[in-house]
Protein backbone atom coordinates (compact mmCIF):
# COMPACT_ATOMS: atom_id res chain seq x y z
CA UNK A 1 0.00 0.00 0.00
CA UNK A 2 1.45 3.33 -1.09
CA UNK A 3 0.33 6.52 0.64
CA UNK A 4 0.59 9.81 -1.21
CA UNK A 5 0.28 12.88 1.01
CA UNK A 6 -1.80 15.53 -0.72
CA UNK A 7 -1.68 18.17 2.01
CA UNK A 8 -0.84 18.71 5.68
CA UNK A 9 -2.65 21.41 7.63
CA UNK A 10 -3.34 22.52 11.17
CA UNK A 11 -7.03 22.75 12.06
CA UNK A 12 -7.90 25.15 14.87
CA UNK A 13 -11.16 25.62 16.79
CA UNK A 14 -13.71 27.72 14.92
CA UNK A 15 -14.04 29.96 18.00
CA UNK A 16 -11.38 30.89 20.56
CA UNK A 17 -11.42 29.09 23.88
CA UNK A 18 -12.66 31.39 26.69
CA UNK A 19 -10.01 32.57 29.14
CA UNK A 20 -11.60 30.65 32.03
CA UNK A 21 -11.07 27.37 30.11
CA UNK A 22 -7.44 27.94 29.18
CA UNK A 23 -6.09 25.24 31.50
CA UNK A 24 -7.40 21.68 31.71
CA UNK A 25 -6.29 19.89 34.87
CA UNK A 26 -5.61 16.15 34.74
CA UNK A 27 -7.43 13.84 37.14
CA UNK A 28 -5.67 11.11 39.08
CA UNK A 29 -6.85 8.66 36.40
CA UNK A 30 -5.18 10.72 33.67
CA UNK A 31 -1.98 10.91 35.70
CA UNK A 32 -1.60 7.14 35.66
CA UNK A 33 -1.97 6.82 31.89
CA UNK A 34 1.34 6.27 30.07
CA UNK A 35 2.30 8.32 27.03
CA UNK A 36 0.48 6.29 24.40
CA UNK A 37 -2.16 6.93 21.76
CA UNK A 38 -5.56 5.50 20.90
CA UNK A 39 -5.52 4.75 17.18
CA UNK A 40 -8.88 4.00 15.57
CA UNK A 41 -9.50 3.81 11.80
CA UNK A 42 -13.02 4.22 10.43
CA UNK A 43 -13.53 2.64 6.99
CA UNK A 44 -16.33 3.72 4.65
CA UNK A 45 -17.10 1.54 1.65
CA UNK A 46 -17.96 2.84 -1.82
CA UNK A 47 -20.05 4.16 -3.39
CA UNK A 48 -19.39 7.52 -1.79
CA UNK A 49 -18.99 11.06 -3.04
CA UNK A 50 -15.33 10.19 -3.50
CA UNK A 51 -15.33 11.52 -7.05
CA UNK A 52 -15.50 14.88 -5.28
CA UNK A 53 -12.83 14.47 -2.59
CA UNK A 54 -12.35 18.23 -2.27
CA UNK A 55 -15.95 18.62 -1.08
CA UNK A 56 -15.52 15.81 1.44
CA UNK A 57 -12.25 17.25 2.73
CA UNK A 58 -13.84 20.70 3.09
CA UNK A 59 -16.77 19.21 5.03
CA UNK A 60 -14.55 17.18 7.34
CA UNK A 61 -12.20 20.08 8.06
CA UNK A 62 -14.98 22.59 8.78
CA UNK A 63 -16.84 20.16 11.04
CA UNK A 64 -13.59 19.26 12.83
CA UNK A 65 -12.93 22.93 13.48
CA UNK A 66 -16.41 23.30 15.00
CA UNK A 67 -15.98 20.12 17.06
CA UNK A 68 -12.71 21.43 18.49
CA UNK A 69 -14.59 24.42 19.89
CA UNK A 70 -16.54 21.97 22.07
CA UNK A 71 -13.54 19.70 22.70
CA UNK A 72 -11.11 22.56 23.25
CA UNK A 73 -8.44 20.63 25.26
CA UNK A 74 -7.76 18.45 22.21
CA UNK A 75 -6.52 21.51 20.32
CA UNK A 76 -4.15 22.44 23.15
CA UNK A 77 -0.73 21.22 24.18
CA UNK A 78 0.42 18.94 26.96
CA UNK A 79 2.60 20.73 29.48
CA UNK A 80 6.01 19.30 30.34
CA UNK A 81 5.04 18.51 33.94
CA UNK A 82 2.21 16.21 32.75
CA UNK A 83 -0.20 17.94 35.15
CA UNK A 84 -2.46 19.75 32.74
CA UNK A 85 -3.15 20.85 29.17
CA UNK A 86 -2.60 24.39 27.97
CA UNK A 87 -5.82 24.99 26.01
CA UNK A 88 -4.18 27.48 23.68
CA UNK A 89 -6.02 26.63 20.42
CA UNK A 90 -2.81 25.68 18.61
CA UNK A 91 -4.84 23.12 16.72
CA UNK A 92 -4.51 19.55 15.46
CA UNK A 93 -2.63 18.05 12.55
CA UNK A 94 -4.81 17.14 9.56
CA UNK A 95 -3.52 15.06 6.65
CA UNK A 96 -5.26 14.57 3.32
CA UNK A 97 -3.90 11.46 1.57
CA UNK A 98 -4.45 9.14 -1.38
CA UNK A 99 -3.90 5.40 -1.32
CA UNK A 100 -2.21 4.16 -4.48
CA UNK A 101 -2.31 0.66 -5.99
CA UNK A 102 -4.57 -0.72 -3.27
CA UNK A 103 -8.33 -0.95 -2.88
CA UNK A 104 -10.10 -0.68 0.45
CA UNK A 105 -10.78 -4.42 0.38
CA UNK A 106 -7.12 -5.19 -0.29
CA UNK A 107 -6.02 -2.90 2.54
CA UNK A 108 -8.11 -4.91 4.99
CA UNK A 109 -6.88 -8.30 3.77
CA UNK A 110 -3.74 -10.26 4.69
CA UNK A 111 -0.84 -10.13 5.01
CA UNK A 112 -0.75 -8.25 8.29
CA UNK A 113 -3.49 -5.69 7.69
CA UNK A 114 -2.83 -3.87 10.98
CA UNK A 115 0.76 -3.17 10.03
CA UNK A 116 -0.51 -1.61 6.81
CA UNK A 117 -3.20 0.31 8.67
CA UNK A 118 -0.60 2.23 10.65
CA UNK A 119 0.01 4.16 7.44
CA UNK A 120 -3.54 5.53 7.69
CA UNK A 121 -2.67 7.70 10.70
CA UNK A 122 -0.74 11.00 10.78
CA UNK A 123 1.89 9.47 13.07
CA UNK A 124 4.89 10.86 11.21
CA UNK A 125 3.33 14.32 11.04
CA UNK A 126 2.15 14.56 14.67
CA UNK A 127 4.98 15.60 16.97
CA UNK A 128 5.68 17.40 20.23
CA UNK A 129 2.80 18.08 22.58
CA UNK A 130 0.03 17.62 20.02
CA UNK A 131 -2.83 15.55 21.36
CA UNK A 132 -4.86 14.75 18.25
CA UNK A 133 -4.11 13.92 14.65
CA UNK A 134 -6.52 13.07 11.80
CA UNK A 135 -5.77 11.56 8.41
CA UNK A 136 -8.37 11.17 5.67
CA UNK A 137 -7.25 8.70 3.01
CA UNK A 138 -9.05 8.18 -0.30
CA UNK A 139 -8.80 4.78 -2.00
CA UNK A 140 -8.91 4.46 -5.78
CA UNK A 141 -11.96 2.19 -5.46
CA UNK A 142 -13.93 5.03 -3.88
CA UNK A 143 -13.60 4.02 -0.23
CA UNK A 144 -12.42 6.33 2.55
CA UNK A 145 -10.47 5.76 5.76
CA UNK A 146 -10.55 8.30 8.58
CA UNK A 147 -7.71 7.60 10.98
CA UNK A 148 -8.06 9.24 14.41
CA UNK A 149 -4.90 9.33 16.53
CA UNK A 150 -5.62 10.65 20.05
CA UNK A 151 -3.42 10.92 23.12
CA UNK A 152 -4.45 8.45 25.81
CA UNK A 153 -3.38 11.04 28.41
CA UNK A 154 -6.49 13.09 27.62
CA UNK A 155 -9.02 10.45 26.58
CA UNK A 156 -10.10 6.87 27.12
CA UNK A 157 -12.05 4.89 24.48
CA UNK A 158 -15.41 6.27 25.71
CA UNK A 159 -14.08 9.83 25.34
CA UNK A 160 -12.71 9.08 21.88
CA UNK A 161 -16.10 7.73 20.82
CA UNK A 162 -17.86 10.81 22.22
CA UNK A 163 -15.54 13.06 20.24
CA UNK A 164 -15.90 11.20 16.94
CA UNK A 165 -19.70 10.93 17.21
CA UNK A 166 -19.97 14.64 17.98
CA UNK A 167 -17.70 15.52 15.06
CA UNK A 168 -19.68 13.26 12.71
CA UNK A 169 -22.96 14.76 13.92
CA UNK A 170 -21.70 18.26 13.15
CA UNK A 171 -20.62 17.16 9.66
CA UNK A 172 -23.99 15.55 8.93
CA UNK A 173 -26.45 17.94 10.56
CA UNK A 174 -24.51 21.06 11.55
CA UNK A 175 -24.75 20.50 15.31
CA UNK A 176 -23.50 18.05 17.92
CA UNK A 177 -25.91 15.65 19.59
CA UNK A 178 -23.43 15.13 22.44
CA UNK A 179 -22.05 17.71 24.85
CA UNK A 180 -18.69 16.89 26.43
CA UNK A 181 -17.99 17.63 30.09
CA UNK A 182 -14.47 18.38 31.31
CA UNK A 183 -14.76 18.13 35.09
CA UNK A 184 -13.18 14.76 35.92
CA UNK A 185 -10.42 16.41 37.99
CA UNK A 186 -12.98 18.04 40.25
CA UNK A 187 -14.38 14.60 41.11
CA UNK A 188 -11.06 12.71 41.22
CA UNK A 189 -8.35 15.33 41.93
CA UNK A 190 -4.72 14.69 40.98
CA UNK A 191 -2.10 13.72 43.55
CA UNK A 192 1.45 14.97 43.98
CA UNK A 193 3.42 11.71 44.07
CA UNK A 194 2.80 8.77 41.76
CA UNK A 195 4.36 5.32 41.54
CA UNK A 196 5.97 4.73 38.12
CA UNK A 197 3.31 4.19 35.48
CA UNK A 198 3.31 0.99 33.44
CA UNK A 199 4.68 1.88 30.03
CA UNK A 200 7.19 4.38 31.40
CA UNK A 201 9.50 1.40 31.89
CA UNK A 202 10.45 -0.34 28.63
CA UNK A 203 10.34 -3.87 30.03
CA UNK A 204 6.70 -3.40 30.98
CA UNK A 205 5.65 -1.70 27.75
CA UNK A 206 7.25 -4.26 25.41
CA UNK A 207 8.44 -7.42 27.16
CA UNK A 208 11.96 -8.31 26.04
CA UNK A 209 11.68 -5.55 23.40
CA UNK A 210 10.35 -8.12 20.94
CA UNK A 211 8.34 -7.34 17.83
CA UNK A 212 4.63 -7.20 18.62
CA UNK A 213 1.76 -7.70 16.21
CA UNK A 214 -2.02 -7.21 16.14
CA UNK A 215 -4.54 -9.61 14.66
CA UNK A 216 -8.34 -9.63 14.69
CA UNK A 217 -10.43 -12.65 15.63
CA UNK A 218 -14.19 -12.63 15.17
CA UNK A 219 -16.62 -14.30 17.54
CA UNK A 220 -19.98 -14.81 15.83
CA UNK A 221 -23.21 -14.65 17.82
CA UNK A 222 -23.67 -18.45 17.85
CA UNK A 223 -20.16 -19.00 19.23
CA UNK A 224 -20.66 -16.34 21.90
CA UNK A 225 -23.89 -18.06 22.95
CA UNK A 226 -22.00 -21.34 23.30
CA UNK A 227 -19.28 -19.66 25.37
CA UNK A 228 -21.89 -18.00 27.59
CA UNK A 229 -23.40 -21.41 28.29
CA UNK A 230 -20.01 -22.81 29.27
CA UNK A 231 -19.31 -19.79 31.47
CA UNK A 232 -22.56 -20.06 33.41
CA UNK A 233 -22.18 -22.08 36.59
CA UNK A 234 -25.87 -22.54 37.39
CA UNK A 235 -29.07 -22.52 35.35
CA UNK A 236 -30.64 -19.80 37.48
CA UNK A 237 -27.49 -17.66 37.52
CA UNK A 238 -27.30 -14.37 35.62
CA UNK A 239 -25.84 -14.75 32.14
CA UNK A 240 -22.31 -13.44 31.76
CA UNK A 241 -21.91 -10.54 29.36
CA UNK A 242 -20.57 -11.13 25.85
CA UNK A 243 -17.31 -9.52 26.86
CA UNK A 244 -16.89 -11.65 29.99
CA UNK A 245 -17.62 -14.87 28.10
CA UNK A 246 -15.11 -14.06 25.38
CA UNK A 247 -12.49 -12.80 27.85
CA UNK A 248 -12.84 -15.94 29.99
CA UNK A 249 -12.41 -18.11 26.91
CA UNK A 250 -9.31 -16.21 25.78
CA UNK A 251 -7.98 -16.52 29.32
CA UNK A 252 -8.00 -20.32 28.90
CA UNK A 253 -6.07 -20.00 25.64
CA UNK A 254 -3.46 -17.63 27.08
CA UNK A 255 -2.96 -19.88 30.11
CA UNK A 256 -2.25 -22.87 27.90
CA UNK A 257 0.39 -21.04 25.88
CA UNK A 258 4.11 -21.50 26.29
CA UNK A 259 4.67 -17.93 27.54
CA UNK A 260 6.99 -16.37 24.94
CA UNK A 261 9.24 -19.39 25.02
CA UNK A 262 10.28 -18.87 28.64
CA UNK A 263 9.09 -22.29 29.78
CA UNK A 264 10.82 -24.20 27.01
CA UNK A 265 9.59 -25.55 23.71
CA UNK A 266 8.46 -28.88 25.14
CA UNK A 267 6.13 -27.43 27.77
CA UNK A 268 2.41 -27.19 27.10
CA UNK A 269 1.11 -27.15 30.68
CA UNK A 270 -1.09 -24.22 31.77
CA UNK A 271 0.44 -21.38 33.81
CA UNK A 272 -0.81 -19.29 36.66
CA UNK A 273 -2.58 -16.52 34.78
CA UNK A 274 -4.37 -13.28 35.63
CA UNK A 275 -6.21 -10.58 33.70
CA UNK A 276 -6.54 -6.84 34.12
CA UNK A 277 -10.10 -5.74 33.40
CA UNK A 278 -10.63 -1.97 32.97
CA UNK A 279 -13.76 -0.90 34.86
CA UNK A 280 -15.34 2.42 33.85
CA UNK A 281 -16.62 4.58 36.69
CA UNK A 282 -18.97 6.78 34.65
CA UNK A 283 -22.47 6.08 35.88
CA UNK A 284 -21.11 4.61 39.10
CA UNK A 285 -20.29 8.01 40.63
CA UNK A 286 -23.32 10.30 40.69
CA UNK A 287 -21.41 13.39 39.58
CA UNK A 288 -19.85 11.67 36.55
CA UNK A 289 -22.02 11.72 33.45
CA UNK A 290 -21.70 9.47 30.42
CA UNK A 291 -19.93 12.10 28.33
CA UNK A 292 -17.43 13.18 30.97
CA UNK A 293 -14.14 13.41 29.11
CA UNK A 294 -10.82 12.01 30.22
CA UNK A 295 -9.73 8.63 31.54
CA UNK A 296 -12.42 7.34 33.87
CA UNK A 297 -11.49 3.69 34.29
CA UNK A 298 -9.76 1.71 37.00
CA UNK A 299 -7.66 -1.33 36.07
CA UNK A 300 -7.94 -3.86 38.90
CA UNK A 301 -6.35 -7.29 38.56
CA UNK A 302 -8.05 -10.61 38.98
CA UNK A 303 -6.47 -13.06 41.38
CA UNK A 304 -3.89 -15.37 39.77
CA UNK A 305 -5.75 -18.50 38.71
CA UNK A 306 -4.01 -21.80 39.30
CA UNK A 307 -3.80 -24.45 36.60
CA UNK A 308 -5.52 -26.31 35.15
CA UNK A 309 -7.27 -23.44 33.35
CA UNK A 310 -9.46 -24.83 30.60
CA UNK A 311 -13.05 -24.51 29.40
CA UNK A 312 -14.32 -26.22 32.54
CA UNK A 313 -12.85 -23.32 34.55
CA UNK A 314 -14.80 -20.64 32.68
CA UNK A 315 -17.48 -20.12 35.39
CA UNK A 316 -14.68 -19.50 37.91
CA UNK A 317 -12.93 -17.11 35.52
CA UNK A 318 -16.13 -15.12 34.96
CA UNK A 319 -16.64 -14.92 38.72
CA UNK A 320 -13.07 -13.64 39.10
CA UNK A 321 -13.85 -10.83 36.64
CA UNK A 322 -17.12 -10.05 38.39
CA UNK A 323 -15.18 -9.83 41.63
CA UNK A 324 -12.90 -7.05 40.33
CA UNK A 325 -15.93 -5.12 39.08
CA UNK A 326 -17.50 -5.42 42.53
CA UNK A 327 -14.22 -4.28 44.06
CA UNK A 328 -14.53 -1.02 42.12
CA UNK A 329 -18.29 -0.63 42.55
CA UNK A 330 -18.41 -1.35 46.26
CA UNK A 331 -14.95 -0.19 47.35
CA UNK A 332 -13.61 3.17 48.35
CA UNK A 333 -12.81 4.27 44.80
CA UNK A 334 -16.47 4.74 43.91
CA UNK A 335 -18.10 5.12 47.32
CA UNK A 336 -15.63 7.58 48.82
CA UNK A 337 -13.91 8.70 45.61
CA UNK A 338 -10.69 7.70 47.32
CA UNK A 339 -7.69 8.17 45.02
CA UNK A 340 -5.64 6.03 47.38
CA UNK A 341 -7.62 3.00 46.19
CA UNK A 342 -6.53 3.71 42.62
CA UNK A 343 -2.89 4.02 43.73
CA UNK A 344 -3.12 0.58 45.37
CA UNK A 345 -4.54 -0.90 42.17
CA UNK A 346 -1.74 0.59 40.07
CA UNK A 347 0.95 -0.58 42.49
CA UNK A 348 -0.51 -4.09 42.33
CA UNK A 349 -0.51 -3.90 38.54
CA UNK A 350 3.14 -2.84 38.42
CA UNK A 351 4.15 -5.60 40.84
CA UNK A 352 2.32 -8.21 38.75
CA UNK A 353 3.90 -6.83 35.55
CA UNK A 354 7.36 -7.23 37.00
CA UNK A 355 6.61 -10.80 38.05
CA UNK A 356 5.14 -11.67 34.67
CA UNK A 357 7.97 -10.25 32.58
CA UNK A 358 10.93 -10.96 34.85
CA UNK A 359 10.01 -14.51 35.86
CA UNK A 360 10.55 -17.75 34.00
CA UNK A 361 7.10 -17.66 32.51
CA UNK A 362 5.37 -18.78 35.70
CA UNK A 363 2.79 -15.97 35.52
CA UNK A 364 0.84 -14.75 32.53
CA UNK A 365 -0.61 -11.22 32.71
CA UNK A 366 -3.05 -9.93 30.08
CA UNK A 367 -5.41 -6.99 29.71
CA UNK A 368 -8.88 -7.59 28.33
CA UNK A 369 -10.73 -4.39 27.50
CA UNK A 370 -14.27 -3.95 26.23
CA UNK A 371 -14.84 -0.95 23.95
CA UNK A 372 -18.59 -1.38 24.19
CA UNK A 373 -19.37 2.01 22.68
CA UNK A 374 -21.31 3.03 19.53
CA UNK A 375 -18.34 3.61 17.22
CA UNK A 376 -20.41 2.37 14.27
CA UNK A 377 -22.75 5.37 14.64
CA UNK A 378 -20.01 7.63 13.22
CA UNK A 379 -21.99 8.81 10.17
CA UNK A 380 -20.47 11.92 8.57
CA UNK A 381 -23.26 12.10 6.02
CA UNK A 382 -22.52 9.12 3.80
CA UNK A 383 -23.61 6.27 6.08
CA UNK A 384 -22.16 4.23 8.89
CA UNK A 385 -18.64 2.83 8.61
CA UNK A 386 -18.21 -0.58 7.04
CA UNK A 387 -15.65 -1.46 9.66
CA UNK A 388 -14.04 0.12 12.72
CA UNK A 389 -10.66 -1.17 13.77
CA UNK A 390 -8.23 -0.76 16.64
CA UNK A 391 -4.51 -0.40 16.04
CA UNK A 392 -2.39 -1.23 19.06
CA UNK A 393 1.36 -1.39 18.95
CA UNK A 394 2.80 0.04 22.15
CA UNK A 395 1.80 -2.77 24.52
CA UNK A 396 1.84 -6.55 24.25
CA UNK A 397 -0.58 -9.00 25.89
CA UNK A 398 -3.65 -6.86 25.24
CA UNK A 399 -7.11 -7.74 23.91
CA UNK A 400 -9.56 -5.05 22.79
CA UNK A 401 -13.13 -6.20 22.09
CA UNK A 402 -15.47 -4.18 19.87
CA UNK A 403 -18.96 -5.14 18.84
CA UNK A 404 -19.26 -6.08 15.19
CA UNK A 405 -21.29 -3.78 12.96
CA UNK A 406 -24.35 -6.00 13.37
CA UNK A 407 -24.00 -5.66 17.15
CA UNK A 408 -24.36 -9.38 17.95
CA UNK A 409 -20.73 -10.46 17.53
CA UNK A 410 -17.33 -9.36 18.79
CA UNK A 411 -14.16 -8.45 16.93
CA UNK A 412 -11.27 -9.09 19.32
CA UNK A 413 -8.03 -7.33 18.40
CA UNK A 414 -5.28 -9.35 20.04
CA UNK A 415 -1.79 -7.87 20.49
CA UNK A 416 1.03 -10.25 21.33
CA UNK A 417 4.71 -10.69 20.68
CA UNK A 418 5.39 -12.16 17.25
CA UNK A 419 6.41 -15.48 18.82
CA UNK A 420 3.35 -15.65 21.07
CA UNK A 421 1.03 -14.75 18.18
CA UNK A 422 2.32 -17.65 16.10
CA UNK A 423 1.43 -20.00 18.95
CA UNK A 424 -1.86 -18.28 19.78
CA UNK A 425 -3.35 -18.41 16.30
CA UNK A 426 -2.45 -22.09 15.93
CA UNK A 427 -4.32 -23.17 19.07
CA UNK A 428 -6.97 -25.67 17.96
CA UNK A 429 -9.36 -24.75 20.78
CA UNK A 430 -9.26 -21.07 19.75
CA UNK A 431 -10.26 -21.83 16.19
CA UNK A 432 -13.34 -23.75 17.32
CA UNK A 433 -14.89 -20.48 18.50
CA UNK A 434 -13.05 -17.61 16.78
CA UNK A 435 -12.39 -16.91 13.13
CA UNK A 436 -9.33 -14.94 12.01
CA UNK A 437 -10.58 -11.88 10.16
CA UNK A 438 -9.12 -11.95 6.66
CA UNK A 439 -11.30 -9.21 5.21
CA UNK A 440 -13.10 -7.08 7.75
CA UNK A 441 -15.66 -5.85 5.19
CA UNK A 442 -16.96 -9.37 4.43
TrEMBL record:
Signal peptide: none annotated. It holds the Pfam family Transferase. Gene3D superfamilies: Chloramphenicol acetyltransferase-like domain. GO terms for molecular function: acyltransferase activity. It comes from the Eukaryota. Keywords: Acyltransferase, Transferase. The keyword Acyltransferase applies. Belongs to the plant acyltransferase family. This is BAHD acyltransferase.
Amino acid sequence: MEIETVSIEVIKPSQPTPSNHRSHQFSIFDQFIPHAHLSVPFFYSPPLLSHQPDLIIALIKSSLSKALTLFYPLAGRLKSDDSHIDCNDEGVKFVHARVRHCSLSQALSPPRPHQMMRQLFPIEHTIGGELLGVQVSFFECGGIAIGVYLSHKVADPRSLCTFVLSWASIAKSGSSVLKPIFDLASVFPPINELPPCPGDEPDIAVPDRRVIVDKVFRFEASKIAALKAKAKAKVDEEDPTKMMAVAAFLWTIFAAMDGDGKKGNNSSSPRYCMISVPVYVRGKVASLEEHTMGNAAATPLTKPMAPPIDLSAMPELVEAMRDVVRRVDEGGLVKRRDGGELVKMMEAYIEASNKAYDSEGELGLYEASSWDFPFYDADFGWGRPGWVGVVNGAFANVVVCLDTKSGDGIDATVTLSEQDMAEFESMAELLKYATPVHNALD
